[in-house]
Structure formats: C-alpha cells, structure tokens
Amino acid sequence: MKSTSIIFLFLFILQLSHQTTSEDVEPELTLSSGSIRGTSVDFRGVKVYQFLGIPFAEPPLNELRFQKPVPKKPWNGVLSVNKWGSACMQPVFPGFNTELHLSEDCLILNVFTTDAAFQDKQNGKKNSLRPVMVWIHGGGFNFGSANTASQYDGTPITGLKDVIIVSINYRLSSLGFLHLPEAGVPGNMGLWDQQLALKWVKDNIEHFGGDPNRVTIFGESAGSMSVSAHIVSPHSKGLFKNAIIQSGSIYDLKRWAQPELAKNFLNKIGCESNDYKLCLSNYQFGQASEGLTFWPTVDGEFLPHHPEELVANHGVDPNINVLLGTVGNEGAFELLLKDLVTFHPLNPVNLTIPHAKYIIGKLFGKKLIDFYSERYLASLSADDSDAIRLAVAQALGDTILACPTYALGRDLIANGVPNVYGYVQTQKPSQAVLLVSNQAKWMANVASHADDIPMVFGHPFTKLDKFNNEDVVLSFLMIDIWTKFARDGKPPQISHREWLPWNLSDSTPYPSMVLNSNKIGLIETKSVEFCIKNWPFPLDKPYNMDFETGVYAKMEEDHDEL
Ligand SMILES: *[C@@H]1O[C@H](CO)[C@@H](O)[C@H](O)[C@H]1NC(C)=O
Ligand SMILES: *[C@@H]1O[C@H](CO)[C@@H](O)[C@H](O)[C@H]1NC(C)=O
C-alpha cells in the first residue's frame, strides 16, 4: 500500500476514534496462585481487559532482599488488580521519574487481553489462543517501570491487533544488580526477576487466552539488553520463541564493568565491618545509590561466560526468531543527558572539529581519537557545527547501543541461529519520550534513543493532539510488524518488498528495513555494515559514564592536553 493511501485510511480511523473509557464489567479469573479481578476499557470499539499489578514473586523483602526471587505463594479470596502498581526502587530526579510510586515490594506484572481472546478461552474454543508479547522496560538497569502508564500502556497494541501484552517489573539499581558473592548476593537479581516473570507467563497466560508456545519477548535499551541476556543465558531457554531487540545488546559487558563498584557501594553505606549481611539488611535505598550505576555481571550462573562466548560456543537455541534494530542516531539523546551545556537543546555551544576530538577523547580515551575521527569526522565541513555535534552523537550511540546490537545479530547468524531480521527507524515521533528531544533544535530531524517507544506502544492512537498523520502511519506500521512477527516468527512483506533474514551467503548479507513513513519498503545496509566491519571497537578502558557538563569550556583549561 502506498503511504498516501495509508494516511487516508488513518484520517478516517482517527475520526472514528473515541477516548478510552472504563466500563462496568470486571473480568475475573482463577490462576494456580489465586483469583484476580481486573478492569475493562473500550479501545475503538474493542473491549480490552487490563489486569494491573499481578504479583509473580514473593515481595523481595527481609531475608529475600538481594536474593533471587521466589514464586508468589497462593492467596485467598479475590485480588483486585485494576490499578497501575508501584515501580521498583530507583534514584529520583525531579521532572524525570517523580510521578512513579516507588516500593521494594514491586515484583508485579500487567496483562492486557481482549474480551474476544478471553471468551474464546473460557468457552474452550480450539486453536484460538493468541500470541503473547512480554515487554521488558528500559532505563539503564537503574530506572524505569512497567507501570509507567504514560509510555507502556499495552491497550492500543492489544486493542488493534488482538494479541496479549504482558509488561513486567524487575528490581533495579543496587537492589537488582549488586554483585557481592562473599555476602551471598548473587548479582543479576533483576534478570532473575524477569526470568521468573517469563516462567509465570508460560504457566499462566493460557487463562487469559494467550498461547504459552508463542511468547515473544521485546524490550528497549536496558530492556533490549535484557532480551539479549535471555537469548544467551542457559536458564531462560524454552521460555520464549521470538525476541525483539530494540536498541541495545548485552555484548561488551567488560566495557560497563566497574570492578570497584561493590566496594564503593559498601563504603558509601558506611559498611566498615565485614558483617556484610548486617550492613545490607540495614541499608535504606537512596542513601547511597545515587551516583552509582549498577549493571548485569558475568556471575557464573545466569551468565556463565561473557555473552560473546556463549554465542560463539553455540549456546543459543537455534529455533528462536530475532528481530533487531536501532533508531537513527542513538547517541544524541545520551549526549543531551551527559552534557547539557555543550549539547544544550536551544543554545548549544558551536562545535569545531578540535572540540569534537576533545570530547571523543573524554568519552573513549585519547588513544582512540584517531580511530573515531577517521570514521566519523573526516568528511565533515569544519563550520557545520550541527553536523559535527551529530557525528559525536553517532560515535557514542554506535559504541554503546547500535553496534553491539548489530554485532549480536552477526554472531547469531554465524553460529547457527538462522532467523535474524534487521530494521532501522529513521523517523522521529512528534512527541518523544523525553520532551527535550523534540525541543532540541540540533536534533530536530534525527530519530534518537527511545523514539521507537511512542511508535510501538501506539501513542499516536491515544494522544491524538500530540501526533500527526505521519506518526500514525509509522506507529500502525510498527505495531503491524511487531505483532505479525509475534504471530509468525517472521516480519511481513512491506509494500511488496519481502523482508529477508540476514544471510551470509547473500551479496547483501545484512538487509535492514527502513522504518519511516516516507520510505516504506526501502532497505538500508550501510549503518549495519559499518558496525559489522568495525566491531569490536578497540576500546581498552571502560567508556566514561561520568562525562561532565560543560566539556567545551574545560577544553580551554586543558589546552595542553590536546
Ligand atoms: C554559532 O554560530 C552561528 C553561525 O555560525 C552564530 O550565529 C551563533 O551565534 C553561534 N553561537 C554561539 C553560541 O556562539
Ligand atoms: C541465502 O542467500 C543465498 C544466496 O542468495 C540463497 O540461495 C539462500 O536461499 C538464502 N537463504 C535464505 C535462508 O534466505
């Protein structure tokens, strides 16, 4: 279908749309752990049932704190699950995540299903189970929640496509990722939480009308890294059939590892004795977590080896199907967070090539200035400040997000997982997850990190005044692709263009579908091939996570360093 006719179709649908409203019917069902009562909403004439905040694990409190999760014990009576629940503990920043209600008792998940799926199941109708999609949220393993209603409401996808959406919480920051074996803290607790939620889905989703044998896990950023962790971990095998990796993989963990992290953490919480257990049981979240960034580790169990080795040793289930991709310029958003002076949304500093090199040295180490300059700065004109700024962003985004994603795909097909499909989203939504991304003039025309979220979660269908027709077209297209992939294990044809898997025997080994309402059916290969050719980047030290504000000004002080 041509994009113009898609636009007309959606103008028409938009006119028919009405607000999501609550109705009286309260869906009830009985799981092996107990009964629950959800709520019902209308989405464009489709009745969608929401079950919000179902506990899948015992609250990770007291002796369960800093431990792997344990399954939820059965309860009596009917549990009301009709309100968005808490987020797991995380550092709080005004204007960023203050709207979340935080609690350590946060191991809950949400299920969205249609009345039709629910009734078919209740009536025992054969072969009627719907595909299931489990969302793992992002936030750098230190932030975020499945219960961010403004971003991750599963209602539009479920309402439009009659699939089951599940979104899960997992522990974050120190509580989710502290690795301190000498105190019995295994590390990766947050990944074990996700895995227990996936087991819950396998065991329970049929009650909602979902097919336990057609589970797709999908996630963005740290959620996408988590998806790839489940792909490589021997402990998550068989819990899902398909995986969608949106901007990030668990590759290159060495780059993120901070060997002194646990020690710094113990220092910060004033743990001077060797009685770690006592220190940890007295620890109140918030007193020390700010400023420390926790991350998955090669713990010897969930990740028995580095992810690259697990793939290379054919440790991955060859029958899974993978859809992976990135968003145009992943790093722009990151730089904005890192240095609000140099990359100020409205009045950024004018960048020259020497400034760009200086910043690259700060980010990746001085030894790599030439490596990055050759690849990212060589063709730029010296006075095109915005192009230089975007090139620095591209270098960062490729290093930490895009290239690890594509390198994982490359290694999967080289090691016996044949069904890997690629995409690149180049269209920026009218309302990004972080509003400042729309306000920043220098990134006005580039899609950046997290710009896939409004599209995949159908924000243009619920926030009509914030989005235009092109947004509607792309969102509908992406929801169509995502849900067909969940149904069939392969993405659909796009505008007569067959979507081929990556294939090393082909002259175009890494075809990736462009996701842009003005370029429907086009294939891109350049950015993927760039990553494949150059990865791994020769970094010999961790990437600098504490890039300071106002680097431009500091360059003058540090002049002799250049
Ligand atoms: C950046 O350069 C442009 C034109 O090259 C100029 O108009 C603008 O004032 C400069 N901005 C700053 C902050 O120096
Ligand atoms: C891979 O490419 C080769 C050469 O074009 C082709 O013969 C083969 O069918 C392709 N494999 C798949 C799975 O598409």
From TrEMBL:
Any one of the GO BP annotations: acetylcholine catabolic process
Signal peptide coordinates: 1-22
Ranges of residues in domain Carboxylesterase type B: 27-517
Keywords from the named record: Glycoprotein, Hydrolase, Serine esterase, Signal
Class of the enzyme per the UniProt entry, highest EC level: hydrolase
Gene3D superfamilies cross-referenced by the UniProt entry: alpha/beta hydrolase
Keyword match Hydrolase: yes
EC number(s) per entry: 3.1.1.-
Transmembrane spans: none
GO MF term set: acetylcholinesterase activity
Keyword Membrane: no
GO cellular component: extracellular space; plasma membrane
InterPro entries documented for this protein: AB_hydrolase_fold, AChE-related_enzymes, CarbesteraseB, Carboxylesterase_B_AS, Lipase_GDXG_HIS_AS
Family the UniProt entry places it in: Belongs to the 'GDXG' lipolytic enzyme family. Belongs to the type-B carboxylesterase/lipase family.
Name the UniProt record assigns to this protein: Carboxylic ester hydrolase
Organism of origin: Tetranychus urticae (Two-spotted spider mite)
